[in-house]
């Protein structure tokens, strides 16, 4: 069975990717990161979420991002911005941006893939995010793949690695629709950047607004709890 | 003053790079990694080494590489190989290889550079190592730089980053010669993959043999202590 490393965040996107990759028959090695993010509850969600997916291994890597403490996702003193609707966010890169985050995540995935002999790395990046996060764009991911194939002993010895973002051209509504078809249980996912300590979503951050809109577009009710 | 992020390991190479970059007048932000390597004494060495260099900040990042435990640099049950002389190593990638290590190191450096507004990242990679480590080659470093300039908010907004390996074409002997000219105090560096707990070098691993040969070629005595 072919092995796949999947970056799983506990969010809607990567959870959908997990279901897609499972469908394709890969043996799954899931990789999550504990970077003392304010929305750490997502790690608990992913542990619940993956249970029915026969995941071979789930590694939670402790990530020391204390040098990058300007992001609202990490810092205690930077607030996650709240909006009335998703369109208010605009095209600016928000304070929730974490410097080089996907590059660090994918670098770990690359090392882990080499370690276990996997040629496929999956990430939940997509165009809806790309306007706001440079490390969610196609050209970035293609460039990372090129670099990755020069970086490792495995690649030098001919075992190439693919970085695949199956959601890349999909809107959030498309993603929810695809997940529904695969029977994804979204009650064990969370998207909020600023959840309460007991895991309720705020309903007002960019991530919440985009998520709610996606369920509405699919005429579905988001099964998670909002404050 | 232009800012530079320098990856410093406590070894001979990156210590020489620090002296070179200081000479060029950069404001220096040094970045080291504690990845529970068996040769962790190098972190203590670098703290001593940097003292005279007016380093603006020195960050030691805790790196969780437990998922990659096959390397002799990390694992307790894989021995660092010992040789009679450096030529015995050959061109194979040795068990001291750590999957994606420089990619992870450079990814952190990229995030840190963005955080502090630096456009220059320096790394001590060079051709002597390139035969054995894929992530020390010119084509790898160039590819990483391309990826880096698609990865960050800073780059997207026009503030490009350079990955510079000033030693890249130099032999170990050339590096020692260059460091000597700059007054580098090599007594506060260590290269050994398998030092004793009190910081003595083994003299028999690849890193030690290459280092000793470099001092000998320069008709110098290596000032560190060997068992």
Record the SSE blueprint.
The structure is a homodimer of 227-residue chains.
Chain A: E1 3-7, H1 12-23, E2 27-34, H2 41-49, E3 57-62, H3 101-116, E4 120-122, H4 127-130, H5 138-151, H6 153-156, E5 162-164, H7 172-181, H8 206-217
Parallel strand pairs in A: 1-2, 1-4, 2-3, 4-5
Poorly predicted runs of 5 or more residues of chain A: none
The pLDDT mean of chain A sits at: 88
- The H-and-E topology of chain A, N to C, reads as EHEHEHEHHHEHH
| Fourth-tier CATH superfamily name of chain A | HUPs
Tally of individual helices of chain A: 8
Computed over alpha carbons, the radius of gyration of chain A is 17 Å
How would you summarize what this structure contains?
Two copies of one chain form a homodimer. The first copy, chain A, is 36% helix and 11% strand. With 227 residues, chain A is α/β, with parallel strands linked by helices.
Structure characterization notes:
Two copies of one chain form a homodimer. The N and C termini of chain A lie far apart (43 Å). In chain A, α1 packs across α7 and α7 packs across α8. The first copy, chain A, has one domain: Rossmann fold (3-Layer(aba) Sandwich). The first copy, chain A, has 227 residues and is α/β, with parallel strands linked by helices. Chain A has a five-stranded parallel beta sheet with strand order 3-2-1-4-5, sandwiched between helices. At the A-B interface, β3, α3, α5 and α6 of A face β3, α3, α5 and α6 of B.
Defining traits:
homodimer; 227 residues; alpha/beta; Rossmann fold; 5-stranded parallel β-sheet; 8 helices; 5 strands; 36% helix; globular
């Amino acid at each position: 069975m072919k092995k796949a490393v999947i970056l799983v965040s506990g969010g809607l996107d990567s959870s959908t990717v997990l279901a897609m990759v499972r469908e394709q028959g890969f043996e799954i090695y899931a990789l999550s990161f504990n970077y003392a993010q304010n929305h750490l509850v997502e790690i608990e969600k992913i542990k619940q979420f993956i249970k029915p997916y026969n995941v071979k291994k789930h590694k939670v890597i402790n990530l020391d991002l204390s040098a990058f403490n300007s992001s609202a996702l990490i810092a205690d003193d930077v607030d996650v911005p709240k909006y009335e609707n998703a369109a208010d966010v605009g095209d600016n890169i928000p304070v929730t941006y974490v410097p080089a985050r996907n590059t660090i995540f994918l670098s770990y995935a690359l090392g882990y893939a080499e370690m276990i002999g996997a040629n496929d790395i999956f990430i939940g990046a997509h165009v809806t995010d790309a306007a706001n996060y440079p490390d969610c764009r196609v050209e970035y991911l293609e460039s990372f793949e090129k670099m990755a194939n020069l970086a490792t002993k495995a690649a030098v010895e001919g075992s190439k690695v693919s970085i695949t973002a199956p959601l890349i051209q999909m809107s959030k509504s498309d993603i929810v629709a695809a997940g529904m078809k695969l029977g994804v249980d979204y009650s064990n996912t969370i998207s909020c950047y600023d959840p309460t300590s007991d895991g309720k979503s705020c309903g007002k951050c960019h991530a919440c607004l985009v998520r709610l809109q996606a369920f509405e577009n699919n005429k579905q009710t988001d099964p998670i709890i909002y404050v």
